[in-house]
Amino acid sequence: MINHLDSSKTRNNMKKLYSFILIAVISFSGFSQSSEIKKADRFFAQRAFMDATDAYENVNNKDQEVLQNLADSYFYTNQMQNASEVYKNLFLKFGEAVAPKYKFRFAHASMAVGNYKEADKYFSEFYGSQYDFEKFRKELDTTVSHVFTSNQVMNNAASADFGITFYGDDKVTFASTRNAERPLYPWNKKPTLDLYTAKTDDEGQLSEIVLFPGDINTDSHESSATFSKDGMTMYFDRTNDKRVKVEDDKIAHISLYRAKMVDGKWSNIEVLPFSSDSYSVEHPSLSADGKKLYFASDMPGTNGSFDIYMVDVNEDGSFGTPQNLGAGVNTAHREQFPFISEEGVLYFSSDGHQGFGNLDIYKSEDDFSETKNLGATINSGFDDFAYVVKEGEDTGWFASNRRGTDNLYNFLREDYTPPVVEIDERETNTETGRQQLKDVGNIYFDFDRATIKKESEVTLDKVVSIMTKYPTLNIEVGSHADARGTDSYNMALSERRAASTLEYLVSHGIERDRLTSKGYGESMPLNDCTKPTGCTNAQYAKNRRSEFTIMN
């Protein structure tokens, strides 16, 4: 009896000891995980994203905030495969609890790794409208004005190089992290940026690379120079010394500076009056006549993130009021790295216009009301930016991180005219001015319907017959609505009509990649019926149509 009681007491004591050890281990593990998260959060707040990725990866049970920050850390350091995988896990676990901005980044990361279906899904959800990359790419192939042949200038993985610009007749200036004597930048663990000069040869290769002379470079970042035509004035970026609080972070913004050539030296270095400690002003580009300075800024009044601005440079060297270039150029996202060519063509980079993923290079002309992507021969799924060109020579440079880090590329561009398929069945539509299939005409729809009518099949079968006869012929199905109904409803209705027309052609043997469908809503009526009342049913019916436009 005594032995039994002693044995029972021993077992109870052992259980208590094991329980205590288990609780201690769990508590220590929890404390360790909490400590790791705090360390990672500290790195993330300091924008030390390389360190943040390592710290967040060491967290075993990753909650929503950890996954968000880990994905962003990969995204901001151009590790797109990792970013895409973590974003995907984030949405699988937490779904609609995740803020829309992560859909935007996930879509761009998906574009970078070639997962276009995933990108379409999340862009569509983010923008609230249908996003179709393959359709965009096919249409762009018929409208680009140039094709580009490009080559990486230097195979230099150790440093980041970008922001190249013309400097005199045979020199360039660019920004680089190659100066090992500068402080390390926590974001990417590379030295802060300095400006360099180099000589160029006929093939666009660089030689005699040296630090930019004088007092331009400091321990802060300097980048993105631009020069007056006479070479006596330069503008450039410099990061501010002062850090200001933005939400939970302390950020040093970027200011624009001007320097003058005096007695063979760059001096009179001064910050421009519209720069600020409270926002960034960056990436200057001076017009050929020196009268207008273009730049990017997130100053109050932008459409969202960074916008492109223009400011007048007066005769006495003073400046006018910066002017936002407007919605034709600027979106709610990033527009940066403007370059104004000798011919007044504006080139810039954006991740807000539809493109190939992340920053793409675009151009805008005349009143800057329309923007065009430069196409697949220069843009990639990664950041492509800081484009400069000599229009008359069709040569220039740009930067891209498509191979892991920012690198310089030179290019040669050639005029591009999409190949024309020679067919007998081609004619110009006198009402729209578009090239269409001869003697085919349009098909029409019942009011508020997108269903193909039986009588339309004769016309559609003619389209099938012609496209079968000419196997390289590409067609756009453009569909329309009458003026009855709201603009948004009619746009959606016309898109359904275009889709049903395209699906009929595909179901009768036409390859899907030879067809594009586009809804125009009520924006292109063939008569004066532009209001929901005042016309007969027959007059309204003329605008409920699908047209077949030859794209090549």
UniProtKB/TrEMBL annotation:
<dbReference type="Pfam" id="PF07676">
    <property type="entry name" value="PD40"/>
</dbReference>
<dbReference type="InterPro" id="IPR011042">
    <property type="entry name" value="6-blade_b-propeller_TolB-like"/>
</dbReference>
<dbReference type="InterPro" id="IPR036737">
    <property type="entry name" value="OmpA-like_sf"/>
</dbReference>
<dbReference type="InterPro" id="IPR011990">
    <property type="entry name" value="TPR-like_helical_dom_sf"/>
</dbReference>
<keyword id="KW-0472">Membrane</keyword>
<dbReference type="Pfam" id="PF00691">
    <property type="entry name" value="OmpA"/>
</dbReference>
<feature type="domain" description="OmpA-like">
    <location>
        <begin position="432"/>
        <end position="552"/>
    </location>
</feature>
<dbReference type="InterPro" id="IPR050330">
    <property type="entry name" value="Bact_OuterMem_StrucFunc"/>
</dbReference>
<dbReference type="GO" id="GO:0009279">
    <property type="term" value="C:cell outer membrane"/>
</dbReference>
<protein>
    <submittedName>
        <fullName>OmpA family protein</fullName>
    </submittedName>
</protein>
<dbReference type="InterPro" id="IPR011659">
    <property type="entry name" value="WD40"/>
</dbReference>
<dbReference type="InterPro" id="IPR006665">
    <property type="entry name" value="OmpA-like"/>
</dbReference>
<dbReference type="InterPro" id="IPR006664">
    <property type="entry name" value="OMP_bac"/>
</dbReference>
<keyword id="KW-0998">Cell outer membrane</keyword>
